[in-house]
Amino acid sequence: MNEEIVNDIASNQKQDEENVEVKNKITWLVFSINDKKYAIKSSEVHEIIRDLTVYKLPFLPSYIEGVINRRGDPFTVINPLSIIDNLDAQPPESSLFLILKRTDDQLSLHISDILSFYDIEEDDIHLIPNGDKEGLYLGTIEYNKEEIPALNSDAFELIMRNDFGNS
């Protein structure tokens, strides 16, 4: 009798395990730039650093603030608002930078604050229909009952390459 009960329980557990749908979760880094919220896949961020001096460089597009020195390596500092809002937006007052995980370039985004690391299911990302890999936005995610833009980190490098004639 006990073996029947144990086998029945094991059979039910096996059926439950087969019925469970595995959903992929993606961790997003939610941050702000001058009170505007954005998200980027946390897997695309190498490091978050603060309190570094931005060294200005002449004759560059307005969205490039200059470079920072991270352990002896120069990283280009991009003011994302200058690209997003398409104007000469003032850089954030804080000295906080997202170092992007890149294989061929050393880029950082100048941001104001880190709000959260946020896990969402892959199906809950509202992708832009027919979006291309070069667009600035991947889509939106819902964060605290608010739709916020999900940025495409590759777009910043592509914009720079286009501006400097390097495809």
Please characterize this protein's 3D structure.
- By secondary structure, this protein is of the alpha+beta class.
- The chain has helices at 2-19, 80-84, 153-164, and strands at 25-33, 36-41, 45-50, 64-70, 73-78, 96-100, 107-111, 113-121, 126-127, 137-143, 146-151.
- Strand 4 (64-70) and strand 5 form a beta hairpin.
- The chain is elongated and about 80 Å long.
β-strand amount: 35-45%
In which range does the helix fraction lie?
10-25%
> N-to-C terminal Cα separation, in Å?
73 Å
What form results from the Cα inertia axes? Answer: elongated
Mean of pLDDT: 84
Tally of separate helices: 3
Oligomerization state: single chain
What's the total count of β strands?
Answer: 11
The major pleated sheet works out as: 5 strands, mixed
Question: Rg to the nearest angstrom?
Answer: 21 Å
Write the element-wise H/E pattern from the N-terminal end onward. HEEEEEHEEEEEEH
Structural class label: alpha+beta
Low-confidence stretches: none
Lateral strand order in the biggest sheet: 3-6-7-5-4
How do you describe this structure in short?
The protein is of the alpha+beta class. It contains three helices and eleven strands; from the N terminus they run αβββββαββββββα.
